[in-house]
Amino acid sequence: MTKRFNVAVIGCGIGRSHIKEGYRTHPDLFEVRALCDLDPARLAAVADEFGIKRRTASFTEVLAMDDVDIVDICTPPATHKGMILDALASGRHVICEKPLVGSLKEIDEIIDAETRARGRLMPIFQYRYGDGAMQAKRIIAAGIAGKAYVGTAETLWKRTADYYDNPWRGRWKSELGGVLMTHAIHMHDLVTFLLGPVDRVFARTATRVNAIEVEDCVSLSLAMASGAFVSATATLGSQDEISRLRLAFENVTFESAHEAYSPGDGPWTILPANEAVAAEIAACLADWTPVGRRFEGQMAAFHAALVAGAPPPVTTADARRSLELVTAVYHSADTKADVLLPIGAGHEKYASWLPDA
Ligand SMILES: NC(=O)c1ccc[n+]([C@@H]2O[C@H](COP(=O)([O-])OP(=O)(O)OC[C@H]3O[C@@H](n4cnc5c(N)ncnc54)[C@H](O)[C@@H]3O)[C@@H](O)[C@H]2O)c1
């Protein structure tokens, strides 16, 4: 019989979706034992909805619960680092929402703590989880797609004043960034998941949609280490909401689903160069088993990794790569120049990309 892990979810915003999509869809793999939130009304509403008896406002109390195996952190970004370090130190496995932390220096501290920890740490990047994204990954990894030429990545969403009626949003200190960091981070993770590392970045950012501190429009030009070019745009001022990735390879062109919050869903448009490539793709996908979408897929993959003693399906190296791109984008926007990756401890934005750092 497979092991069932007991989970404590911290934060009842997106945490509610983790419970609904990620844990309740796998009652054989997970049980949500405890729920934690500072807001008593929200805590009661979500705990009642899912029949979770153990409720607390205290993260310290959660860490003292002997029967909790996994601490799932779904609180605002600026709280993540301390909670991750405390949860790892308590010997638990940890799941944490994006952005994992607020700088490359902080993620390097987390990676260092992870090497000494008993538990595993998995950052959330649930947009990878969908049959479309994972089939594209398999076709590319099998070498069928060939050379990557160009890609476009769009995060065209809408956010209005009511969304920013939440004290942590819209401010550098608490949100740590705008559309680049909070929203487009998913599509940019998909770009590197499918096309590999970024070599250099040129970026423009602006705040034009809402009356906030952080940016809400970005345009990026990426040169990938493979030689491919990617253009990425993101705004929170689009009238309809879509996320879209289109990738042109030597032998295959891929286009993602356009669902704003689940572009990884299948089927993707897969255009082979000829019948021989079509046959290779068919053979490559012949034994396809659905992966589960969004949190359903990512949490199941985490369970499988824990049981196998394998690295998590999304790693802190992935989170570092994502924050390295964020750092490069803000630096390019500031300096109006190309920024080369990788970014190490000697870089002026290594410790922080915040404007007043
Ligand atoms: N993966 C995704 O698609 C996705 C979507 C939305 C948000 N997020 C991320 O999830 C995180 C939370 O975002 P949200 O939209 O759910 O925010 P939110 O403000 O709606 O919810 C956060 C909750 O955390 C609680 N909280 C804050 N500090 C706490 C503490 N110290 N102890 C216990 N509870 C605490 C708040 O009371 C609040 O209910 C952010 O990092 C955000 O970027 C990810």
TrEMBL record:
Chain ranges of the GFO/IDH/MocA-like oxidoreductase domain: 135-247
Domain Gfo/Idh/MocA-like oxidoreductase N-terminal: 5-122
Entry-linked Pfam families: GFO_IDH_MocA, GFO_IDH_MocA_C3
GO molecular function (one): nucleotide binding
Superkingdom field: Bacteria
Protein name (Swiss-Prot/TrEMBL): Putative dehydrogenase
Organism (species): Aureimonas pseudogalii
Highest classification ranks of the organism: Bacteria, Pseudomonadati, Pseudomonadota, Alphaproteobacteria, Hyphomicrobiales
